Amino acid sequence: MSRFEQIDMFDHTEISIETKVTERPSIDLLPLNEYDHIIISLSGGKDSVACTLKKLDEGVPPEKIELWHQSVDGGHNDAVEFLDWPVTEAYVQAFGELLGIRTSFQWRERGIYGELMRKDSLTGDVYYCENGKVVHLPTRNGKKTTRLRWPAMSPDLRVRWCSPYVKIDVFRRVLNNHPRFQGTMEQPKKILVITGERREESSNRAKYAETEIHACNSRTRIVHAWRPVIDWNEREIWDIYERWRLLPHPAYLCGWNRTSCMGCIFSTADLWTMMREIAPERFYRLVEVEKELNHTIDTNRLTLEQKANMGSLKRLPKDARLSKWVQLALNRSFRKEDLIMDKWELPAGAFQGAAGGPV
Ligand code: SF4
Q: Which InterPro entries does this UniProt record tie to the protein (predicted)?
C-alpha cells in the first residue's frame, strides 16, 4: 500500500448471506432529507447510473449522495487483472467527479481471482479507500476452505459465490465498520442504500421488493434499501442517458448489453466470441485457468473456446469507431470531459435482451 495510509480495523468472519429471494414486505422510506447518508452502489452499468441521474433529476443535492463501487478484481496493490473491464473504476471515478458526488471504492484482497484460487485458507481481507486512505478489515475468523471452482451459473448465491464474495459482503463489511456510519442506540444513523436492479432483467429479480430493510440495519443504524428503477424498462434507462447526453460505459459502445464483469460467468456465446476478438489476452487467460482447475465456467461443461466458437461478432460496431471504443474499454484511465456527448446516440449494446449478466 505504498501511496496510501493503511489502517487495520475490526476483526471479521467468513461471510453469511441469505441465499434465496424471499417475498419480503416493502417498507415506507423516510423523507429523503431525513437520511444522514444516501449511498448509491454504482457498478458503472446503466441501471445504477440511471438511479444516480434520477435522484439528481428529483433534486437530491449531489453532496447528500455518495457512490460506492466494489472493485471485483481487487484494488490498488493487490488488484489482479482477471474478469473486470479495465476502464470501469476510472469511468466510475470520472462520473462521480462530473456530478460532484463523493466516490469511494471497496474490494476483497485479490478480488475474484484470489477467491477462486483459495486453498485451505480464509477468504481474503476487505479494504476500502476513501480520500486516498486505504482501510483494512482483516478476516481472522471462519473456516479455512478450498475453492478452486468457478462460481456456478445460478441465482443461488451459495454456489454462485462471486457476487456475495466480491460485491455484497464487501459492501456490508465496509458499511458495518466504517466510522462515519456508526450511530448510537439513542441516536441511530439513518442510511439509505440505493441499487439498480430491474424486474425486467430476470425472473429472480422480478421478485425483488422495491424497498426493504437492509441487511446492515442494526440497533445503532437504520438502514433502508431502495431500488428506484425496479420497474423501469430499458427504454426509460436509455432515455435518461439521452437527457443527460451521457456517454455509456464503453462496454455498451462495444456491443455488450450488460456491463458487469467483462468475463461474466453468465456471458452468452456471442459475448465470449466478442471478448476473444477485442481482448484475446484476457480471454486466453481464462482459458488457461479453466485448464489449470480442470473445471469449466459453463455449467453445461463446454469450454470457453467451444462457447466462443459457437458465437458471432455481429454485435460489434461495424464502423471505424470500434477501435476507439475498444481502446476506451481496455484503458485504465477515463476523462470526465469525455462523459458528455455532443450528439447522443444509442450504444450498440442497447436492446439486445438481458442475457449475459447476473440474474
Ligand atoms: S458480473 Fe458476473 S462474474 Fe461478475 S460478480 Fe457478477 S455474476 Fe459474478
A: PAPS_reduct_dom, Rossmann-like_a/b/a_fold, Sulfate_adenylyltrnsfr_sub2
